[in-house]
Design a protein that fits this description.
Blueprint: E1 7-11, E2 23-28, E3 39-46, E4 49-64, H1 69-75, E5 91-102, E6 115-118, H2 121-128, E7 136-143, E8 149-155, E9 167-170, H3 178-192, E10 196-202, H4 218-222, H5 225-229, E11 240-245, H6 262-270, E12 274-277, H7 281-284, H8 301-311, H9 313-317, H10 321-330, H11 343-357, E13 374-375, H12 377-382, E14 389-393, H13 399-417, E15 431-436, H14 452-467, E16 469-475, H15 483-487, E17 491-494, H16 499-502, H17 512-518, E18 525-529, E19 537-540
Length: about 550
């Protein structure tokens, strides 16, 4: 049984391991259990001040008076595991802690012999700088080994405001619970604000395609006290609409190209929550550059062709995608050089376009029949309302088409917030949050510099917060994402990952002990870095209350 005491040890300063203004070491009472991320305190007087210093546990080490491991082997009768020592060795457990706060701005080292104690819940908030947060946003629960658990909040102005913005979550698939945590924070935002809109991309399975329905095990979820601790209700999202790629000749799936089952699709259609999205030549021919967002184009030939198409009279006369493909083929004829662009380049472009346009997404006209549920994503984004959630399914599209759709939505959000609409400022959502998993597809570390998709994402991460455009993103490996994108995220969340990933440069500022813990984090546990936190924290969050996960 773990003994819960307040006083747990004393500061120990030695010649080789002195206390500093940034860290201290203390020996631990033999009956005390402690773990990394616990917070402790020690008080001491200097001059006329009495200061309390708070430390975050980094390393826990046990030593004995045995000079070598061979000594212990010999003491066990040369390796007999059943042998007991005639006299127990002198040993102790000592702990290294990093200073995260002190109450009197005293930056003197903790003196040897100072008593070390566990903190209580109020002192956790003081230590982390959370006692003065003016506009809190639930982040999770901080648990210590002495059974203290404290609700932790973000400073909302560093997530959605002028002081900072954007959240990035990394970790291996499944165990890292990246999507679940992002959705937890988004749900908390929807519950605590009324002027934010949400655009969510569903990139795998049916993870986000039933987020307005209760989870089947909702009664169990409601019993989790974490919800109450965080002042949140265990409930799904409200005011949700779903957008699926159009699939021709498929009335049984409501003409939707999606992994979601037919029964649920029918129910969504009956409730007016389902639309299919298409692209027509007249409305969308100028968006073709997004098709080539991540294609290396060192000589800018694709860019030149797209510029020619935008300005050429012959291309502007065309009325549908079939005419467009036919005209492209004419540009590929031997001996012909259209727009001073070599035939070989036209042929490459034509092959890429043939592959892309061979998709039901590309329609000649938008049908007036309500059976098809046709919509243009661009127009739907321009009409987004406060507190509305739009879920865009791209899970079954090929990667180049996912980039195309994502780029189209990014541009629509930018146009909306930068005034490309007749709506008044009061009508618009104050903030629009875009959430996308697999960010490495859209902003990879090795993305071509001229990629229009990368430039759109950079615009959001570098300048979007001033316009109220916020990016929540996730990926398996943080090191695979463009530096300028992740560098502009004020909140960084780390889920379970592997040792190879933690050896990368992205993790060099994280203490080694924390890196080890990243490789064994359980589901529902994450490490969180936030500007107002005085250290990286290990937080837990409740199971989502909405229907989630792949269907059997």
């Amino acid at each position: 049984m773990t003994i819960k005491k307040s006083k747990i040890g004393k500061v120990s300063a030695t010649e080789k391991d002195p206390s500093t203004c940034n860290s201290f070491t203390f020996w631990l009472d033999k009956d005390i259990e402690i773990r990394p991320f616990d917070i402790v305190k020690t008080s001491f007087s200097i001059g006329d001040k009495t200061s309390t210093t708070f430390g975050l546990i980094q390393e826990i080490i046990h030593i004995t008076d045995a000079p070598t491991h061979l000594t212990n082997y010999v003491s066990s009768d040369f390796g007999d595991v059943e042998t007991k020592y005639a006299t127990d060795r002198l040993g102790l457990t000592y702990v290294k802690a990093d200073v995260i706060h002190n109450t009197e701005n005293v930056f003197m080292p903790c003196p040897d012999g100072s008593i070390v104690e566990f903190v209580n819940a109020d002192e956790v908030r003081i230590a982390l700088g959370l006692d003065k947060v003016k506009d809190p946003l639930p982040a999770g629960v901080f648990r210590m080994s002495n059974n203290i658990h404290v609700p932790i909040t973000y400073n909302r102005s560093f997530v959605l405001g002028q002081d900072g913005a954007h959240m990035n979550i990394s970790g291996i698939s499944g165990l890292a619970t990246k999507t679940s945590y992002a959705m937890f924070v988004l749900n908390a935002i929807q519950q605590t604000t009324s002027d934010v809109a949400f655009i969510l991309f569903n990139v795998k399975g049916d993870d986000l395609l039933r987020i307005d329905e209760y989870a089947p095990n909702i009664e169990k979820i409601k019993k989790d006290s974490t919800w109450k601790d965080l002042n949140l209700e265990p409930k799904p999202f409200s005011d949700v609409k779903y957008y699926y790629p159009f699939l021709g000749d498929s009335p049984e799936t409501e003409y939707a190209f999606t992994p979601l089952n037919k029964k649920t699709l029918k129910e969504q259609a009956n409730r007016g929550k389902l639309k299919t999205y298409i692209y027509t030549y007249e409305e969308d021919k100028r968006k073709l550059e997004m098709m080539f967002a991540n294609i290396d184009d060192p000589n800018y030939t694709m860019e030149s062709i797209i510029a020619h198409i935008d300005n050429d009279f012959e291309f502007n006369k065309l009325t549908n995608w079939q005419e467009f493909k036919d005209h492209l083929r004419s540009c590929c004829m031997s001996g012909k050089q259209t727009g001073n662009i070599p035939v070989q380049s036209w042929r490459k472009f034509s092959r890429l376009m043939d592959r892309a346009l061979n998709n039901s997404l590309f329609q000649n006209i938008k049908s007036l029949s309500s059976n098809y549920h046709h919509s243009h994503l661009y127009d739907e984004i321009l009409a987004i309302q406060k507190n509305e959630v739009k879920v865009i399914d791209i899970s079954k599209l090929e990667e180049h088409m996912q980039c195309f759709v994502f780029g189209d939505v990014i541009q629509a959000v930018k146009d909306l917030k930068f005034g490309q609409t007749e709506r008044t400022e009061e009508e618009l959502p104050k903030k629009i949050i875009i959430f996308v998993d697999e960010l490495n597809k859209y902003a990879p570390a090795n993305a071509p510099k001229a990629s229009p998709l990368l430039q759109g994402i950079l615009d959001i991460t570098e300048r979007g917060r001033s316009q109220g455009i916020i990016l929540f993103s996730a990926e398996q490996f943080r090191s695979a994402v463009h530096d300028r994108v992740k560098g502009n995220c004020s909140t960084n969340v780390y889920g379970r990952t592997n040792g190879i990933e933690t050896s990368k440069a992205d993790y060099k500022v994280i203490p080694q002990t924390f890196k080890y813990m990243m490789t064994s984090l359980k589901q529902g546990c994450l490490l969180v870095e936030h500007p107002t936190f005085r250290s990286i924290l290990r937080l837990e969050f409740p199971e989502p209350a909405y229907y989630h996960g792949m269907e059997e």
